[in-house]
Structures are given as C-alpha cells and as structure tokens.
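Inverse folding, one chain.
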C-alpha cells in the first residue's frame, strides 16, 4: 500500500517538523512559485530524499533558475 500525504492548505507551520511515520519526504517545487523555496524552507528540503519540480511547461515564461535549485538541494 502506498499513501501520499500532500499539504494543500496554507498552514502556518512546516509539516516537515512532524514525524508521521513516513519512509521518505519529497520536496515539491513549482516553477511558477519561484526558485527560492529551498532557501525559504530549509528543514523540509534538508530532509527530502527527492525533489520534484512541477509545471515545467511554463518554465520558459518564468524566472525559475533550475541551476539554483540543483545547487541548493542537498
């Protein structure tokens, strides 16, 4: 069985702070939200085993720096 938990609401704490029994955390970035999220949420991305970047079809129309995301992801 695979269960995915996704933070879909704007809550005031970082869900990475809590152990919910998961086997791995995955960081998700959207090119439309900017490339500063790794710096903004260091706890989540330092614990993440993988990084998923979404909305790549829109990348040519954003300022998202893939190189920055690659360098900043631990």
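Residues assigned per position:
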């Amino acid at each position: 069985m695979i269960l995915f938990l996704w933070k879909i609401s704007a809550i005031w704490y970082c869900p990475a702070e809590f152990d919910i029994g998961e086997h791995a955390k995955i960081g998700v970035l959207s090119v439309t939200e900017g490339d500063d999220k790794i710096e903004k949420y260091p706890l989540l991305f330092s614990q993440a085993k993988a990084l998923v970047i979404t909305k790549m079809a829109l990348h040519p129309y954003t300022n998202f720096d893939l190189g920055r995301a690659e360098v900043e992801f631990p």
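Residues 30 and 55 are 6 Å apart (CA to CA). Strands lie at 25-30, 48-54.
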